[in-house]
Protein 1
Amino acid sequence: MSTLSGTDVRTDDSYVAGMERLVDAVRDLAGARGLDDVVEIVRHAAREIAAADGATFVLRDNGRCHYVDEDAIAPLWSGHKFPMEQCISGWAMLNAQQVVIPDIYVDDRIPHDAYRPTFVRSLTMTPVRAAESVAAIGVYWASNHEATATERRLLQALADSTAVAMENVRVLAELEERRAFEARKREEWLQACLHITRDLLDGTASDPLPGIAEQARWVAGADTTHVLLLTADGAEVEIAVAAGELAIQRPGERYPLGKTYSGLVVETGQPVQVDNAQTENRGAVAHSLVSAPIGPLLVVPMIAAGRTRGTMVMTRQAGEATFDEVDVDQATAFANHAAIALEFADARQALDELALREERDRIARDLHDDVIQRLFAAGMSLQGLLGTLGDGPGAERLDRSIVDIEKTVAGIRSAIYRMRTPLGLGNAGLRDRVLEVLGEVTPLLEAAPAVRFEGALDVMADTDLVEDVVTVLREALTNVAKHAKASHTWVEISYLPGARELVVEVTDDGVGLGEPARRSGTANLAERARRRRGTCVFTSPTPGSEAGTSLRWAVPVD
């Protein structure tokens, strides 16, 4: 026998067994993944360590003691809940003290009526965690027994290990919850990207920006989202769309990048997350776009094909949670996806307009090459017949018919020009300007010129080059009207990206311009070509030739 204290008498074998069981329990608790695991380990270990007839695991639950589970020779209180002030486990937790009761019927802290149906005659109750206990471990004997000091220390060590295990379980649960939350967020951002892609591919969204802004606002949990697109010169951003009840709608309004968050994002290509935009000078523009005080702010770049299209600005009201790392990472990826969607939408719109223009050009060519020629031939036949009729009512009616045919031809030509005007472009492109010149000069010619366009002319952004083309064409057609005496004129404007050359060709079937007119008429055109490292070739008709004058003005396009 080994005497440890006045009442601490256990054989060496039982002490060693208790220590070994405690070590096993501590090892098992280290691997516990949930509260159920902790309860299962502790209820068995506590009974074995104390050589008791029963053990319970009691959880503190909103002012009540919840007897979660037990290991005993007969049923105790598993699954029941009692007010903390009315049971000994509650006393132990409230006072953060281990309780040893050799005889339950002589202790006023014990609710005797609850114990009479049980085998319990003595007990020890150990709180789990001294500061603000979260649980308690009870062990019970069917006979009067006062726990030894060793038993008490072993039970306290088990309670301390249980406290650590429960904290680990809580941290693990928070981590799992965080991972699940982040996974849900990533899935929501992915679904938002897929939603944009689906709308673009099925053609249901003529303007993808409103959907992009609303999707970003909803997934990010933001109060407002603004999409700001860079202007052509890159010095300003323009409000394209806004989403959210608190968003102030100012589409088309522009702001200099200057000292703004959008300017910083465009400059660095990196997102900016601000906890409280109210304290930052760069947040002035963002404040002006929202009808309530803003706190957290997130600005992400919209980058596609190595080019920054603009920024996406998301805000939350003052006092709300900041945007976390998942928001920043996923919103950045979403904004880049949105930028690609805009590139796709622009390309599809250009293709649609090109297809419609080609169809209208085809119809115009059919009208010019078939209908007008038939009417012209009919008019010539009627004029020949008119010469054989002499004067009289029949001749007058025939003459009026000829005039009607000429008016019809003129109306069809006007319709052709209208069909060849650009399809809703905000700024006049090269085709627009060419058709304007034809409209101005046609009244001076014998007949409306036949015009042909080839290539992607309206995507040219060099306004100075467009002005040169307009000047060259106007001067060439004016010379034809003044000097060539031509019956027909042909105009062809072509731009083939592969050749990287813009060509203007004007040809007529007249007698030529004459030497003085030729020199004065081509000097300015040649100078404009020279300034652009191009060529200006002027060909006059040879005596007896049926060919007229031709001008070929060609310049390289960088």
Protein 2
Amino acid sequence: MILFTIAYLAGVLTILSPCILPVLPFVFSRAGQPFARSVLPMLVGMVLTFSGVATLAALGGDWAVNANVAGRYAAIAVLAGFGVTLLSARAAALFTRPAVALGSRLSQRVAGQQPSVGASLLLGVATGLLWAPCAGPILGLVLTGAALHGANVETTLLLAAYAAGAATSLALAVLAGGRVFAAMKRSLGLGERLRQGLGIAVLAGVAAIALGLDTGQLARLSYASTAALEQSLLDRVRDDPVEERASASTAADGERPAYRSDLPVEGMFPPLDGAVEWVNSKPLSVEQLRGKVVLVDFWTYSCINCIRTIPYVRAWAEKYRDQGLVVIGVHAPEFAFEKRIDNVKSAVTDFDIRYPVAIDNDFAIWRAFGNSYWPAHYFIDAEGRIRHHHFGEGDYARSERVIQELLAEAAGNSRSDSGFVQPDARGAEAAPDLAHLQSGEDYVGYMRASNFVSPERVAADAARDYTAGKPRLNQWSLAGNWTVGAEQATLNRAGGAITYRFSARDLHLVLGPGKNGGRVRFQVKVDGAAPGPDHGSDINSDGNGTVGETRLYQLVRQSGEVRERTFEIRFLDPGVEAFVFTFG
């Protein structure tokens, strides 16, 4: 129930997101009309269509991809016609033939005509097909769960709750806007001009969606404007009400009370059963760890956010080991290749991880904690109680302060100010340049792919020749003969390429040598030339590199001014697998 609540509240917050702007004209076009027959059916249609289409996207498959594309084209046509009928009475009169009468019916231009529930519902369906909300932390949580466990009734209901929240805030806005429009009509006699203005706004919204602005520039603005609000909401609502706090204990006669932190108790340390294997340690149990302060770190080795937290976790494990801290990494795979135990062991070695790591391929420990994030940190006191958690990157000083408090509490002493670690993070482990970060994560496999602009449609699980197209910012394309699978695209013939238009200091791409395991040579170009000083840690200044294992490769690090660039990677050998772009 908690997850449904936060999904609904996150939907309410979308009214603050620039991603909602292209949809607003469609909604406000019903302002001033009866709510029950006009506004409400439109919002219901939007909620049902969005939740249904988003669920199909989680299912994946060629038919789902093509159906979604066809639906968007049809919706763009319907809403463009609707906008024209609002703009021009003559155009509305021409839309009387069956093939084009839909726009006129939607506009309700005929004098004395009562608003049609069916027309409003259809307008909502079209809006739901086009609405592309920005995937902040909460919507990301829902979609990640669908990707991990498959689309199901719970996924659909969560998406419906998210859309219902958005519909609630839109309904309130329409009700307020309707009063404003009515007042303007009465006082200024501007009814016709208002309709024409709405028509222009509707056409502008259609144009923005057709040009991809709703998933490009507006998405970047939206992430900055609402992600922090969503994360704060998630943290507040997810936590169980704090009824128990670690209270000061009464010592024996004449002794000072033992130190107790005021950190809340969030729950008990769940069992660590279910790991398929342990690295750097024999299997550990909750009973064995009693009396120790424990940090449990959920991670997966190709996740850039996890990679950037590893230097801090590694430093904490080293600094506080002798004071009673035990760090346990729980490796929970996002991709199929991360389930291969040898791959995980290699990653543990490459990242110089010396603390115990449980390989949680079946998500047994993940489910025991009720976790939903990579990375996620749970801080457990010496009595086996969860006292703090943190999801995602950052806030390292706060996390280390929690470690210090729990260690002091275990020792019965007040927390000493020993300062905070300052790891020397390099390459992909370095902190992101958030001030200049305007590109986000993009998956290559069709199950979660977006912003793909090759002229050819994706042929799911089938070989197809693709051409590069002309990507705009945060769009990408394939060139050559590729087979696009649910998680990755596999190159069938040498010479294939991937192009991405991005704006960030760092560009990373998760790559693997494919089933044959042979090394794959590649060459990177930035704006059509060798990267030079802007090369990443996995290539040289000429842009040359080799894929020898499945992992994240840092391919670009802009050394000077961070600006919009065009990235191209061309593979000189077949068989490479490409999974996901990330940026920093």
Protein 3
Amino acid sequence: MAALSIVGLVGRGRTFVEVQPGGALFDDRVLPVFFIAFLISAAVSWRWPLTGGVVGLFAVATFVPFAQQQLVPWSAVFLIGTISVAVLAWLSIGLTERGREVADDDHGDVDTDDIAPMKAMTLDRRRFLFTVAGGAAAVVAGTALGRYVYDLIWGPTHPESDLAELPDSPLDWAWCGAMTTTSCTVRARPTQPFTNAELVVARNADLTDVVGTFEYADVYDRVAEFRVDGLEPATPYFYAVAVDGELDLVRAGSFRTFPDDDQPLRLVFTSCARTGSNGQVFDAIRELDPDVYVCLGDFHYGDVFVDDVDDYRQVFDVQLTRPAQAALYRSTPIGYVWDDHDYGPNDSNRDAPGRASAMVAYREYVPHYDLAGPDSAIFQAFTIGTTRVVLTDARSARDPQSDPDTPTKSMLGDEQRRWLLAELERSARDHDLVVWANPVPWVDPAEPGADSWAGYDAERRMIADHIASLGIDNLVMVSGDAHMVAIDDGTHTNYSTADGAGFPLLHVAALDRPGSTKGGPYTLGPITGGGHFGMVEIEPAVDGVAVALVAMDWRGDELLRHDVVIRTGEPRP
């Protein structure tokens, strides 16, 4: 058994252990823990085989729920079966040796030929029954513990959606993004290799009032991209993809183009959904009918730690085909930048092993706004009404957290930081409101080595001084990563060397992950847990724009709210 444990550890990430999409953490964290437990069982069995066998059964039973959920079937069966055979061998050896010990102890008795075998048989039977009972109890207790711990770490944090799986159709999934007042991009993945694909866009749900048919512009690993233009502002449209002549009405979608004036807006911001999540939080968001859905990272928890683009593709496919998520993405335009778990392992930076593959997969699968280049960080921005939304990438260009916090240490990288400073200046001047979608916590006391802005305090101060020096007073920040919702009214967001340069902040997480707290303090919250999301509601006001920062849960209930009027300087009629 000790040998098997060592083989298992050596086989991590190789032929012995093949994880399902999103199961990288199993290989990286779970498997070593269980193999250490099996090594301990093996050590105990060397002296006490029966005790070691029962402990081994407990470890195997605890292991089973993890293996079932995160390994492909053949790998789970191989590991569970191999270890179980070893454990049963311990128990068999223990029972056999015990029987021999009993017989040897009775050799000096009278009538030993008759009594010893009977006594040995009686004790063997009793020992066998005790072992079976102990083993059964170990299996029941281990299974219960394994399920409890697995659900605690990776299970759903709130009720699952009632939406059923859609029947098979020509598409696996479709979603829409890069929305403007007159154009958008749709990405869709046919179930099979195809020769031709077209996107039909219409003004009505039955697709009879067609406004255009668009040929696919590019194909990435069977993902077809459709670039739609010639649309009207603030107008609902419906679409479906025809694959080799077969129109897919099962996975048809809809969207509403952005307005070109100061109309009321509803922007939803989220982060942190476990791989395979199908929670009711996605239904709650869809029922709000937002103008745009912005994910600030941890779209999934793939935690890919190898440079293999297929690993990233597979996790995207899992998320995009879950019923509740898929229904939301087919009905709402999206904006998306990654954080650590959907870019690489936990607390990733520019040195993440899968960086190159993450770049490829993002550009293949995500309908994004214009990026700086094929290998650039994925920072981008868009305008909706009179609001500018600025999305930054906090991972793929950042220096390692362990670097000294000097003015040269950067979370954003030189290229992105220059872009951000210019974008904030231009956007604040030309728009009523600027929303900076920043994936990681901003409010956090300086701390060397921290994963948040606390570990990049010099760069944070540089950005804050830029905001203060320009007198930008129409900025709102939305952040993610920590599994909590919180709001700050601007009291704690000023990290500049000037006074009174704070701005409102809404922290949004987690869609479907256990609660955690980072940073602070905040004027409202934090409230930790899953099934959470944030909303920014914008309405024209007489002397500016009225902005509501709202934290919500999967029931559609408001958890926190802060209202503020952003002055524009020009009274509205």
